[in-house]
Amino acid sequence: MERLFFPVLSLVLQWFRPRYNAKLQFLEAQIRILRSRVDASRIVPTPKEKAELLRIGATFGHDVAEVIHVVLPETYRKWVRQSRRGIAFKPSGRPRTPMATVNLVLRMAEENLRWGYRKIVGELKKLGIRISKTTVRKILKDSDIHPLPDKAFKKPTVPWTTFVHAHMDSMVGCDFFTKRVYTLRGVFTAYMLVFIHLGTRKVYCSAPTYHPNGDWVMQQARNANMWLDDMRGIVDRIP
């Protein structure tokens, strides 16, 4: 009798052992998931983790009711149905903001201290980059940058007149003015470009033109540059 019992017991154990080992592997896979999310309040398996659980679960017929802990058994059965239909698992949550966009937001905020998150969203839109106000606000707060300009920036910390007087010798103002010219061929509008060195109040006035364009303005800037060269020591060259 004993000679017959032990072989039968060995055969039964060999039949159950793969199923038992598969369940152990299933539990180990869940433990790895849990360890990777120790601080998470809610566990959301990735597509790779879902596929791993399904692979192991298939070895014992997806009978996971007693060993599934990371999600509800109903959720697991939903994964099984999706897998059988050939539906690919997609990452949960919203896609991350590209780092290039994050860096651009931070650069705009650092180089333009009066810009709030709404202004940054508008400027990004002009560049063809669409991003929500909430996302920009979060990016700024995560980098310890206040999403709204500080009240101190609503008024210059240094009065404008004080700033101008401190840089009188290195500042040049320019502006257009026009003059109506009456001729035998009719009335024309002459355009002139004027440069004024604030420190000395010296003025350079360009030659007039009836047809101002980019090339003409560039040439007048070069002429003014040469005029400033003659005043070397008073103001640096205009870049």
Low-confidence stretches: 234-239
Termini separation: 106 Å
Compressed to H and E, one letter per element, the order equals HHHHHHHEEEH
Give a count of the beta strands, DSSP E runs of length 2 or more. 3
What is the element layout, followed by pairings?
Elements: H1 2-35, H2 47-58, H3 73-85, H4 99-111, H5 117-126, H6 133-142, H7 160-166, E1 172-183, E2 186-197, E3 203-205, H8 214-229
Antiparallel strand pairs: 1-2, 2-3
Helix pairs in contact: 1-2, 5-6
3D structure, described in words:
By secondary structure, the protein is mainly alpha-helical. The chain has 3 domains: 2-85, no CATH class; 99-154; 164-229, no CATH class. Helices cover 48% and strands 11% of the residues. Strands 1-2-3 form a 3-stranded antiparallel sheet, covered by helices on one side. The protein starts with a helix and ends in a 10-residue tail after the last helix. The model is unreliable at 234-239 (pLDDT under 50).
List keywords for this structure.
3 domains; 239 residues; disordered C terminus; mainly alpha; 48% helix
Structure at a glance:
By secondary structure, this protein is mainly α. It folds into three domains: 2-85, no CATH class; 99-154; 164-229, no CATH class.
